[in-house]
Design a protein that fits this description.
Helices cover 31% and strands 17% of the residues. By secondary structure, the protein is an alpha/beta fold.
Length: 719
């Protein structure tokens, strides 16, 4: 029996007959939460939060608690399979790992020889800690095309923060911010990126003032001192209006601005273009509330802004991120205790270094799909998904012949799902690695069984910006499942990259840790590592930007031909921009409402989690429901110019009558037909991926803000 310093752990083991407990770190969302995995006879019997973990302090969400149900699910793919017959036939044949990887390697090499390495596109979804190995494989192969969620999720935060101040500024919850501005984020539900809801809750319970910017009355918004219920898609205008208040009322940090800021005068002029009267008309937020929020944030020190993906899935993605960082900078809340800190990781090999980005030949990097259109994205090796679909469907600017998706379900999570479906049907060869046969995997030629976080060793969180490294320890083995890292390490040897990889992937873990003078076998005996925490580093070193200052006006964006300052752009489809569409589709549709148990398209098979959310829900105001003849719980049709889907109505006073809020990524894995109902409730049937609807620098697809109509399913719309 393993003994731990917390007596309750040892007592539980004795009381319930557990024979082993493994300390590890969850990865069912963006991850990092410490867990204790209790086993009996090699099987998981319980998962609980680890009180010693500095990330979550023993708390754990529903996803982590239910992780064993995912790992042991009877529908889990536990061996490689290949398709028998045409796509969508649903007929699969078991094969060996050698046959699967040999086939994939043969296809990769054949396409590289005939069409160039760029004809092979690698892809991954919202993080399973696999991005470094995927980029390493792609860069060494010579393909510049790695399709990620990075064009509209977290990638924009990293790209714009590097341009602005050198690194992603993280709220320093451990030092008790006195004011928290939660912007387009629902941290107690989604536990995003570097953050966990527990840390926010502790700071709030200690008396932090709270400002929430959200179109919906979330649980966090209900607790706010000030709730700014903005019109969806108008975040940049609201933030510039707040900046205008802070500047005109001299609430900015004069010492920081005078000594450490680039572009101050230009930024002042830009903010002056957003007087509160104008901002109120744009955003629907009363000017008095905007002023009050600006003053509260600027005068309550230290303060942090908790923001996330909702503001990045818009046409103003990059400017939304930049203007929020501008608010942090001009108020002097950058790199101070309790503010937004530029944390440093331990001295390891970074994701960029491990990903071998420098080994991609320049002539190949120049072929990156969309790189000339979306310069900021291309600079960070990120591509817009439509560029891939076009290269498959139209073979422009060159043909894409093969896709290899790992932990990704783009049919459910990317805009204009009908076009995605056409591309996945047409591509000559597709391999997928996942836990289940998803709607995307149903269109593949080979599907590989991927390991969950419970089945792998890894250096957890080394891509994040909170400064921690956490050992993820393997607890179980399920069937023939392999980690993404192991399968790519094996595949790399088959395509001629062997000299850059290892006999086993433990060598890769050693490679990550080598600058610390540690091996994996040594690190996995530790609880965690953290980089040295220093504040106000800019006073000695400046910021890691071209000017060495905090850039309110970006010198690199200006060099690439973009506006160096944040600006508001009306959503491409809105009552203001497209009144002719609004006549038939009168409601603003927002998508992506979070549910605690799901992580985008994942976990709908898990009994405990599906019980929490059995069906897709769309939120509407009671006035809207009455007007449209909708009652609570009705199946309703949500329709945009691109298609229609069905979800159940949920009536709420906490949403504007002009706005409809839908859930995303819904499919029905319990349906055994190959379709899995992927198009029935998938809100991305309605979203648009046209280039004009994307952020001009980052390529972010505007999936969060569009127009729709809504009506009861039993009412014939045409009638």
């Amino acid at each position: 029996m393993t003994h731990f310093k917390h007596s309750n752990v040892n007592l539980e083991m004795e009381a319930y007959g557990f024979d082993t407990v493994v300390k590890s770190h969850c990865r069912l969302c963006h991850g990092g939460c410490g867990v204790l995995i209790y086993l009996r006879d090699g099987k998981i019997k319980k998962i609980a939060g680890d009180p010693d973990c500095p990330i979550n302090h023993g708390t754990l969400c529903s996803k982590g608690l239910a992780a064993a149900q995912l790992a042991y699910h009877p529908d889990r793919l536990t061996y490689p399979v290949k398709r028998i017959g045409p796509k969508k036939s649903g007929k699969w044949q078991r094969i060996t790992w050698d046959e699967a990887l040999d086939t994939i390697a043969e296809r990769i090499l054949a396409y590289k020889k005939e069409y160039g390495a760029e004809s092979v596109v690698m892809g991954y979804g919202t993080g399973r800690d696999n991005e470094s190995v995927i980029y390493r494989f792609a860069n060494l192969l010579g393909t510049p095309n790695v399709l990620t969620a990075g064009h509209f999720c977290y990638g924009p935060r990293i790209a714009t923060s590097i341009l602005t101040c050198g690194s992603n500024p993280i709220v320093d919850y451990a030092n008790n911010p006195k004011c928290i501005m939660m912007w387009g984020n629902n941290i107690v539900i989604s536990n995003p990126d570097e953050y966990k809801g527990e840390n926010f809750s502790v700071a709030y319970n200690k008396g932090a003032k709270l400002i929430v910017v959200d179109p919906r009355l979330t649980r966090v918004a209900a607790c706010a001192d000030i709730w700014l219920q903005l019109r969806p898609g108008t975040d940049t205008a609201l933030a510039l209006g707040m900046a205008n208040v802070i500047i005109t009322e001299n609430l900015y940090d004069r010492e920081f601005v005078e000594n450490y800021v680039h572009g101050w005068e230009a930024f002042k002029k830009r903010a002056a273009e957003y007087p509160l009267e104008r901002v109120e008309k744009i955003t629907w937020v009363p000017k008095e509330k905007i002023a009050a929020a600006a003053k509260l944030y600027a005068t309550t020190k230290p303060a942090g802004i908790q923001w996330g993906v909702a503001i990045e899935q818009q046409v103003t993605c990059a400017d939304n991120d930049r203007v929020l960082m501008a608010l942090m900078g001009i108020t002097g809340n950058i790199d101070i205790p309790g503010g937004q800190v530029l944390f440093k990781p331990p001295k390891i090999r970074s994701v960029s270094e491990f990903g071998a980005h420098r080994l991609l030949p320049k002539e190949q990097a120049a072929k990156r799909l969309g790189g000339d259109r979306f310069r900021l994205a291309g600079n960070f090796a990120i591509i817009n998904p439509k560029c891939v679909w076009d290269a498959i469907l139209e073979e422009k600017p060159y043909p894409v012949k093969m896709l290899f998706f790992i932990s990704s379900n783009p049919l459910m999570t990317r805009a204009n799902a009908l076009e995605v479906h056409k591309a996945l049907e047409k591509v000559e060869f597709m391999a997928v690695a996942d836990f289940f046969i998803t709607p995307t995997a149903e269109l593949a030629d080979i599907v590989l069984p991927a390991s969950t976080w419970l089945e792998m060793d890894y250096v957890g969180d080394f891509w994040k910006r909170h400064g921690y490294l956490l050992p993820r320890r393997k607890a179980i083995q399920v069937g023939e499942c392999r980690s993404d890292h192991e399968m790519l390490n094996d595949l790399a040897h088959r395509v001629g990259q062997g000299e850059y990889w290892w006999d086993t992937f433990e060598g890769g873990l050693d490679y990550i840790l080598e600058p610390m003078g540690l091996t994996w076998s040594e690190f996995k005996q530790m609880d965690y590592l953290r980089g040295k925490t220093e504040y106000r580093k800019y006073r000695k070193k400046g910021f890691s930007t071209p000017t060495r200052k905090f850039e309110l006006a970006s010198t690199l964006l200006e060099k690439w031909g973009y506006d160096p300052l944040p600006q508001f752009r009306e959503p491409p489809e809105s009552p203001v921009n497209t009144p002719e569409i609004a006549r038939d589709y009168p409601y603003i549709l927002i998508t992506g409402m979070r549910q605690p148990g799901f992580f985008h398209s994942a976990n709908r098979q898990v009994p405990w989690l599906r019980e929490l959310h059995p069906e897709p829900r769309v939120e509407i105001h009671p006035e809207t429901a009455k007007k449209e003849g909708i009652s609570e719980g009705d199946w309703v049709v949500i329709e945009s110019p691109r298609g229609r889907v069905r979800q159940r109505a949920k009536l709420s006073e906490g949403i504007d009558p002009r706005v409809v809020g839908a859930q995303h990524a819904w499919w029905f894995p319990e349906r055994k037909d190959p379709d899995h109902g992927w198009a029935e409730s998938n809100i991305n049937i309605l979203t648009d991926n046209a280039y004009k609807a994307c952020d001009p620098a980052m390529g972010a697809t505007s999936v969060r803000v569009l127009l729709c109509r809504i009506y009861p399913e039993n009412r014939n719309r045409e009638a």
